[in-house]
Amino acid sequence: MTSAHHVPVAIVGGGQAGLSVSWYLGRAGIEHVVLESHTPVHAWADNRWDNFTLVTPNWHCQLPGYPYAGSDPDGFMTRDEVVAWLADWLDTFTPPVRAHTRVTRLQNRPEGGFELTLQTSAGSETLTCESAVIATGGYPLPVIPSFAGSLDPAVVQIHSEQYRNPSQLPDGAVLVVGTGQSGTQIAEDLHLAGRQVHLAVGSAPRVARFYRGRDCMTWLAEMGVYDRPAQQYPGGKAAIEKTNHYVTGRDGGRDVDLRQFALDGMKLYGTLADGRDSTLHFDPNLRAALNAADSVYNSICSDIDAHIEREQISAPPATRYAPVWEPEAEPINVDLAAENVTSIVWAIGYRPDYRWIEASAFDGGGRPMQTRGITAVPGLSFIGLPWMHTWGSGRFLGIDRDASHIAATLISGHHESVLRLAVGH
Description:
eight-stranded mixed beta sheet, FAD-dependent oxidoreductase, 9 helices, monooxygenase activity, flavin adenine dinucleotide binding, alpha/beta, CHP04046_FMN-dependent, FAD/NAD-bd_sf, FAD/NAD(P)-binding domain
């Protein structure tokens, strides 16, 4: 291991969140380094499927010094368009990125600050810093259920982050497990390609794409929903920890209606509970899950109606979603071989993994204990977490605001440190 070197601020993670903090620190003249295990913002190109689109309107894309300025603010960028937009942003400044540098350990130093163990192509080295910003994403580890290893080995299993297109999967039917944003959109991608899709639902709610003449997310932004601090959000912690509402930006944007999928031949089931060999066991909650998702859909429409009435906005008349399909029966046991299911796409989310951070900054579930990204551990902060401050946190819409706050805290601390040194304390 080589000798340690020092930098005032180390940012761990070179995605849009970490780079946004770097943008502000660079403008303030604060020496820092961005440590990225791959290449900057690589996940957009490497971890999204071919037909991926944003689910938020393009005007939500607002990074430091670089708001979306394209010709389609109400459209939805594709994966490749997002990659190009981020590359253009990176051309506007020069962040001090060390690519292909993985941080394998971060620990407190007795004299203050942190020591980081780095792994590079040249070997291991150490880095010390006064402040560390963790920008590795909210939940980096894909979740696969414990019984997955007990299933028939002839069935190909991948996580949603590995999915690229229908042709990568063997011929036959595909089971998609999970109805968050990734699960529903991958199910649709397979369905549109002519594959027989089986879909195991989860508890995710849904939202209308367009309502009363505008995108629902534009209405919600105007209503201040994305700016409301997490502590003030109705329903408390349980509400903000729920999966995001499913909808799609594909082909200009549209609703994701699982009932319509069923009418078109997709096979829907309740939540996947267990499995062994070629037999899967589902909870009998399909009807309840569909009803709950539709209830949220209509509730959001009601909130928008109230806003329109309150602000006396001229808009098309109010409507409500009415179910186009109801399950006649809810299968409990399904034989994969009998249904010709040859592959499974797990889209049941991710979990946190901060085991490499040796600091008392986490709750019993391994999640950072923070307020607007700032922890009780001096010098340790986070950026890019879902609901870190508001619903907009972790999204393009909220990154700039969150990064500005984190950077301002770091800059203030740096100036105080310089002042203490200057007066001899």
